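re: ur question from the group chat, yeah i did fold both. here u go
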Amino acid sequence: MNHTDNNDGIVRVAGLVGSLRPGSYTRLVVQLALEGAAELGAQTQIIDLRDYDLPFCDGNKDESHYPPDVARLRRVVREATGLVLGTPEYHGGYSGVLKNALDLMGFSEFEGKTIGLLGVSGGRIGASHALSGLRTACRSLRAWVLPNETSIPQVAQQFDAAGALKDPALAERIRDMGRQVARFAYLHSSHQAMEFLRAWEEAPINPGGEWAS
């Protein structure tokens, strides 16, 4: 089993924005979650996929044709101890640009990391379908996904002209998700937690055998 290596004790929370639209609401909510993580002392970084030249993942083992930004994205995500993933819901799923970014990465970037999920939608139902699919993808990458997630329906009506959420309770819920990512990222990556996991994995088989019926 691989675990996040955090020898310097610093918690780093990165927010991956699954939208390419300039001024996207997805970016605003991811940034808000990172503010919550920063309140607990975490170093934060936003990953805006507009800043990366990423090809479509073709499944080819020969990656010599990949541009340098693929390695750059992998490095930034790998260095994070916790992640916030944000996506708009498109046709009942999460965005294609986010799916492609995930397909270009793997266990080395995600295994053992705490992840918080945020979704926005232009419709009344919200982004529950997108978040469900994203949760499945993160679990398949062996990440620890927070049980609580935030789905924002009719997102264009939720923000004021200055780009702030009108509902203080919703804003606080998003910030609290960032705090939880930072908190659990620390627990999963701290020296004490790593020592416990190593001891547990190396423990001998229970000499008592199976439970008595």
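okk and heres the other one u asked abt
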Amino acid sequence: MFDRNKPYNDLPSLPPKEEFLDTDVLMKWGLASRNLAELNRNVLRIPNPTMLVNTIALREAKTSTAIENIFTTDDELYKAVSSSLKEENASASAKEVLNYREALWGGYNSLLTEGKLSKEVIINIFQKIKTTAQGFRPPQSLTVIRRGNSDLRPGEVIYTPPRGEGIIESKIDNLIDFFSNENGIDPLLKMAIAHYQFEAIHPFTDGNGRTGRILNLLYLVEQQLLSHPILYLSRYILENKDDYYILLSGVTQRKSWKPWLLFMMEAVEQTSKHTNQLIDSIIEQQEETLKFAKTKFKWFTSEFNDLLFSQPYIKQKKMSEVLGITSRTSLVKYAEQLTNLGIVSTIYEGKQVYYANNDLMRILE
């Protein structure tokens, strides 16, 4: 019997022994699959998807960290990412978001190299998120999950994850086997099942939620359901945060898989639709900006337009690199021309100057 105050070392191995497929789940799975396939087709029609995906990945990073009650403003985040992932002046919260994005792309590149998810990939994702050399929780770890301060009984233990010599390692091995073995379960449903399992194992001292949400995306890429890790899944989870945690607990306490799977399929369906709309809006605006600006300025190139839509804020140094000019006078002149037409806004912070893409900001907000 499950006891929230005792380590859940009896967490069942995957695949689940309970029957979880019925008409409701299959219908929801069908809708999720169709919308996910449409999203993947949309990504593939982008001439340079990495540049556009980078912008959406930043939103995913910001929202995923917000689920863990780590908040940052768009302004400080965009300033930090326009400079460097190691921006010294960035707030602690902004750095957490940027670490998440770095972990997402690091995991994606590892997947392209190795071809499949592994224990090493999972640990590397966690280490990038938390900027640490730590690995799995040690056997003697007393990690527990408690209620938040906003709950009726703040501080009360609601879950104690597995612990003990070799237990976390063996459960992660089972999770990796579940990912890689042919067991008759569709990859989209397998992603949802594995996400619960990873959260229940809770293999790290911190950063488990963010690591698990990155694994969702990477597994879909591994299974060729997505070409890039672009599904903005954290948005739906944040908007339905209470349901997310209640349904996770339902699987733990009652083996209630169906409500959890329905929730996750709904998340994939709605997120795919939203991300598709986001991509359509960005592509349409990118094309419109290029067409409009080229009629105004001879110096405005498609490469520079790509830069404008690669991230919300850019700096003069990036402008100089793409345009191939070093004259500060010319850079200021070009920036003023763009500002006068409303294409960018100029933002000053001390000696730093940022140029914000007004239309991209409008779409993202």
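fwiw on the second one: The radius of gyration is 22 Å. The first strand starts at residue 145 and ends at 146. idk if thats what u expected
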